Amino acid sequence: MKIRYCDLLFAAAVLTMAAPAWAHTDTALLTFEKSVHIGSTMLNAGSYKVRADESASQIEVEKNGKVVAQIPCHWIQLNSKSPSDEAVIDNDSIQQIRFEGRTAAAQFE
Known about the structure:
The protein is built from one helix and ten strands. With 109 residues, the protein is α+β, with helices and mostly antiparallel strands.
């Protein structure tokens, strides 16, 4: 069976277009009853949408559809899947964000 150059080129093009479909972006909806810090950014009380791509080293925090912070993070593995979206907070500072159904969590310095 002979493979032609055009067939290989076509297969490469299909794989290139499909690559973004393999990327996974996690989204969490979090509500804080009081102000909290995440990295060097203070978030006032309210509801926020957090977006994170496990292949990236930062998360985005949105309020009312506007990005209010981009925070560096690193990813850790949890022992089990998180039962819900949650922020782990210590002394009014967010240490981790866990995403429902995922065993990876974003951790902050």
